[in-house]
Amino acid sequence: MSLSRVWAIVLRQVYLMKGSPSRLMPLFLWVAIDIVLWGFISRFLNSVSHSNMSFVPTLLGAVLLWDFFARVMQGVTIAFFEDIWSRNFLNLFCSPLSVPEYVTGLVVTSIATSLVGLLVMLLLSSAIFGLSFLSYGLALIPFLLILFVFGIALGIFACGIVLQLGPSAEWFIWPIPGMLSPFAGVFYPLTTLPQWMQWVAHLLPPSYVFEGMRAVVAGGGAQLGELGIAASLVLVYLLGACWFFMTIYRQSVRSGRLARYNAEGSS
User: 212: Cβ–Cβ under 8 A, 6 or more apart, which residues?
Assistant: First the structure.
């Protein structure tokens, strides 16, 4: 793997953002809106609730983590879509660039963009609503890593779907985080769900993250067994997503579909 070619993929995204400042807005605008909106909702619930529970760390913290996951996934897919929209994808592979180098470049791009969003969310939640994740110390790191790797895996898988079905299939990709959120138990314990949804939830690494974070916020410690299950699942998903993308790419090359790839479909 050539680091210079990986850097070239990252540099392309840097030039795109530099040449079009409007591309910078989504990096922090939508996450800022979510934090402010859910922050004031949490404050309102605290004011009308007669319980001793604070909704700020439970609701606002959940929104922050889920938005971080969504930003990671979209960091991969949007960088891929930029090449699709500009009809540049085929041109890239006329060069010595390999698929692992291209995917690695997308992942590095996602790291950069998601860190910007995470920093904005942490600053706003701390400055306006007094939510400081730093108080949880190192316990937060495993949860963020699991969400990050799962976001990368889902982003690579989504790119494979679009590569298989054509550019118009991007509309199948945008709703994915919203479709997963009920099963992940972002805002409520998994016991709230019906049994069949709990079975699905146990196959999703984010469900272990949010259950674990609720335990940490409640004053307990991180459950290492649950984290181990989540880490194992997320590695399986990552390897499966990479295999899926590579398989679709090779099939596209062998069938000649990649050469016919256009703005409407891949047929």
Answer: 143, 222, 223, 226, 227, 230
Question: What is the C-alpha to C-alpha distance for residues 227 and 46, in angstroms, rounded to an integer?
Answer: 30
Q: Which residue has the tokens 């994808």?
A: 89
Q: What is the pLDDT of residues 201-260, one digit of tens each?
A: 999 999 998 888 887 776 666 677 788 899 999 999 999 999 999 998 888 878 777 766
Non-local CB neighbours of 254 within 8 Å, separated by 6+ positions? none
**Are residues 105 and 76 in contact, defined by beta-carbon separation less than 8 angstroms?**
no
What residues contact 155, with CB distance under 8 A and at least 6 apart? 72, 73, 74, 75, 76, 77, 80, 106, 110
What is the distance between the alpha carbons of residues 150 and 176, in angstroms, rounded to a whole number?
13
Number of Cα atoms under 13 Å in the Cβ half of residue 53: 11
pTM, entire model: 0.86
Neighbours of 43 (CB within 10 A): 16
